[in-house]
Design brief:
Methane Monooxygenase Hydroxylase, Chain G, domain 1; single chain; mainly alpha
């Protein structure tokens, strides 16, 4: 590996961690704001989304420049390919954080209603998956990444329980159906963020070992 390529790959890694830190904060704050009905924080997340979008474009352009300049192969090529995918997944997490924040603003316009009991657990699990998938990328830890992938099943289970409860609530309390629909949208968004964290963990496995595991059900 040339010294210049090594330096550029090191810089790419740092740029992923930079955008990852911003996205992780947006995810955490959007979920906390949703739970607490924090309108001010929700508005800030919506306003700051352009920062994530701009960094996503800049990182992708840097990846393409390195590909054209060095034409890397083997592990270096896998690393850059993984960075491109992870970068895209992080940007999508930012978008979903905005959607969750918009549901917070919508819910704030109505009288408060009780959130589902399992929502806090689902939020905590999803937040840990986002944080840990970025840690796995930084450490290039394929074993840890596989463990993160397994947690997605728990998020899916909680998502089904919450959505089933919300459907029952909509039937028994139709006058608050708009609020329950906001909760459904936010819950699905949280589940989708967990899916994207799983994607990142899967990409780390590919980056480190060259194995594609996204279509496998056992890790």
């Amino acid at each position: 590996m040339s010294k210049h390529l090594q330096n550029d790959l090191h810089n790419l890694k740092n740029e992923v961690l930079e955008i990852g830190t911003i996205v992780e904060e947006a995810v955490e704050k959007s979920m906390r704001a949703f739970r607490k009905g924090d309108v001010e924080t929700a508005r800030k997340i919506i306003e700051q989304d352009e920062i994530i979008n701009q960094k996503e474009v800049e990182l992708e352009e840097e990846c393409l420049k390195i590909l054209a300049l060095y034409q890397p192969v083997a592990k270096d090529l896998r690393f850059i390919a993984s960075v491109i995918k992870i970068n895209n997944d992080l940007e999508r997490m930012g978008d979903i954080s905005v959607k969750i924040s918009k549901r917070t603003l919508s819910l704030a316009k109505e009288l408060p209603i009780e959130l589902p009991d399992h929502l806090k657990e689902m939020i905590q699990l999803t937040r840990s998956m986002v944080k840990d998938s970025l840690d796995a990328f930084f450490r290039q830890d394929a074993t840890y990444s596989r463990e993160i992938c397994r947690r997605d099943e728990d998020v899916d289970r909680l998502n089904k329980q919450i959505l089933s409860l919300l459907r029952d609530k909509m039937r028994s309390d139709p006058q608050h159906i708009d609020q329950y629909l906001d909760m459904v949208t936010a819950t699905k968004g949280i589940e989708r963020i967990a899916d994207l964290a799983t994607n990142i963990a899967q990409d780390v496995v590919y980056m480190v070992e060259g194995e594609i595991i996204r279509h496998k059900y056992k890790f």
